[in-house]
Design brief:
The chain contains 10 helices and 9 strands. The protein is an alpha/beta fold and 331 residues long. Helix 3 packs parallel to helix 7 (190-203). The longest helix has 21 residues, at 272-292.
């Protein structure tokens, strides 16, 4: 679940929201059945309760009514968010099983999510951001996030790095080339992990740790100084129950990122401002819960920086990029 596949004819377009195949009633049923929707206490909850939890957790968001998630409507609501099987575990198991079956005997022909250029920019930008933290520089200043090759290898090698929704694991291989060494990749697809392990061994990165784990109900039991998400939040947003899934996502990553650690999210279905609004809503929801429990803790995540060097296109007289990467610090 490392990203969203773009068809060649759509590669130069700037979509308002991520593409998804037309969703039939049967598709929605399969997608919903492939995920277990659970409350904070682990019990299955009904549509009305899921919707109520989402509205309470993110009061600033406009979610469809609970009845709008039903698959037996005659026609979709005009305001309904388009969902896709790309939000289901069965889709990714099938996708990576196919990649494994088509893998050549030698070499690597696996797809690079969001493209090679975006990943190259992402890993170098992330390396420089982390290096600036090691050197005590201003982390919010892009000009300070520059480091000469080899200067911070020893520091970066000790960083605990997690890639959630790792897919084929190629992002971790690129981070390894930048000097990171303590690397873990998780994905809820067993086939993805099998593929990632195979490619890592072929690439000479057998030390990268790959684990089958669902970020929404993670069993890792440890925290990391750097957590990467390249496309996973996108895929979660394509699930029919995306409001609850996204709430679960933020709660989970808040435990996976160590205090003072960095969460780097790359996605194509949110602008920087939209993502930061969602982060602020999560912060407010968490602060509200802490006030009820007489806690004095601060907000959970704070904006740190964002990539400003992705290729841009012009649409309707406005310049922009279809890819967004934002770094958040865990307070």
């Amino acid at each position: 679940m490392a990203g969203i596949r773009w068809s060649p004819e759509d590669a130069d377009l700037l979509p308002a929201r991520p593409p998804g195949d037309p969703v039939s009633d049967d598709d929605r049923s399969v997608a919903a059945d492939s995920w277990s929707i659970k409350s904070d206490y682990g019990s299955t909850v009904d549509d009305d309760q899921r919707h109520a939890d989402a509205v309470e957790g993110f009061p600033g968001c406009s979610f469809p009514a609970a009845s709008d998630y039903s698959s037996d409507k005659d026609a979709p609501d005009a305001n309904e968010v388009e969902t896709s099987l790309m939000g289901s575990q069965s889709h990714w198991n099938s996708t990576y099983a196919e990649d494994l079956a088509n893998l050549p005997e030698h070499g690597n022909s696996s797809e690079v999510w969001f493209g090679v250029e975006v990943m190259d920019i992402l890993v170098k930008w992330t390396k420089n951001l982390c290096a600036s933290i090691c050197q005590g520089l201003d982390r919010s200043d892009d000009n300070s996030c520059k480091a000469e090759p080899g200067d911070t290898f020893r520091d970066l090698s000790s960083w605990r790095v997690l890639d959630i929704g790792t897919g084929n694991g190629l992002l971790l291989q690129e981070l390894a080339k930048q000097g990171f060494h303590d690397l873990t990749g998780v994905d809820y697809s067993e086939r993805a992990i099998e593929l990632a392990k195979t490619l890592a061994v072929r690439g000479g990165f057998s030390y990268i740790n790959f684990v089958v784990d669902d970020v929404l109900e993670t069993k890792l039991g440890r925290s990391f100084q750097l957590v990467m998400d390249k496309g996973t939040l996108d895929a979660i947003g394509l699930h029919p129950d995306f409001p609850v899934k996204r709430m679960m996502y933020w709660d989970s990553v808040s435990h996976l990122v160590a205090p003072g650690g960095i969460l780097v999210i790359t996605l194509c279905n949110r602008t920087k401002d939209e993502l930061l609004q969602e982060v602020e809503q999560f912060n407010q929801q968490r602060l509200g819960s802490q006030e009820e429990n007489s806690s004095t803790e601060s907000a959970v995540f704070q904006y740190l920086n964002h990539v400003q060097t992705y290729p841009t296109i012009t649409l309707g007289g406005v310049d922009g990029s279809r890819i967004t990467t934002v770094a958040l610090v865990r307070l």
